[in-house]
Design goal:
The chain is α+β, with helices and mostly antiparallel strands and about 220 residues long. Helices cover about 50% and strands about 20% of the residues. It has a 6-stranded mixed β-sheet, with helices on both faces. α2 packs antiparallel against α3. It is elongated, with a radius of gyration of 28 Å. The chain starts with a strand and ends in a 6-residue tail after the last helix.
Length: about 220
């Protein structure tokens, strides 16, 4: 999966989060929430090994996700915008005073569904191109997490190796469904063609037989 982790927070208070694999992204994300400069709106990305933490802060509400570096920035930020809009639309002003994890049980399911969509469905990228989401990441800064957290030792990002297996399994299942559907339609078309061909042959044979025997009843 391209996107592996997501959270929604007010300041440093996490209101909801979801992880698609075993990882310490949650711990790193909390440090980023505490260290992220100021309270102004921003779009910023932090690199760590082959993963990128993308952060979108709007009106005091922060949406953060961790994605594979190959995912680029357009899709992760489109995903963050989608999550932000859904969260605000669902909870409104309640986000201003909600306790930690108050929305986690309910909204984590939404984050899981949208994470899978933006990670695996090719339509997500096509839709984002049409919406012009590129403008949202035009001024994104890329910084190293170790630099932001100001630690002398290297901060290791631990991601369970089952991540790739999960992603590959999902893609295999999806490709298998498409293959089965394609084969089914081909079989249906072939069957229809064979039936039509058989009817034509029967009609021609009957026409010759009836004409040869001069059976008036046949015409």
């Amino acid at each position: 999966m391209a996107i592996l982790y997501v959270l929604v927070a007010r300041g440093s208070v996490v209101l909801a989060e979801f992880s698609g694999t075993t990882t310490n992204a949650s711990a790193i994300a909390r440090q980023l929430l505490e260290k992220a400069p100021g309270n102004d709106d921003m779009n910023v990305s932090y690199s760590q090994d082959r993963y990128i933490f993308h952060v979108k802060r709007t009106d005091g509400l922060t949406v953060l996700c961790m994605a594979d570096e190959n995912a680029g920035r357009r899709i992760p930020f489109a995903f963050l915008e989608d999550i932000h809009q859904r969260f605000v639309r669902t909870y409104g002003r309640a986000v201003l005073s909600a306790q930690a994890y108050a929305m986690n049980d309910e909204f984590s399911r939404v984050m899981s569904q949208q994470m899978e969509y933006y990670s695996s469905d090719p339509n997500a990228d096509r839709i984002n191109r049409l919406k012009g989401e590129m403008s949202q990441v035009r001024n994104v800064m890329i910084e190293n997490i170790d630099k932001v957290l100001e630690r002398g030792d290297r901060l290791e990002l631990l991601v369970d190796k089952t991540e790739n297996l999960q992603g590959n399994t999902f893609r295999f299942r999806k490709q298998t469904r498409r293959f089965r559907s394609t084969v089914w339609w081909k079989n249906v078309k072939l069957t229809v063609m064979l039936i039509l061909l058989l009817l034509v042959i029967v009609y021609i044979v009957m026409a010759f037989v009836c004409h040869g025997l001069l059976l008036p009843s046949c015409f």
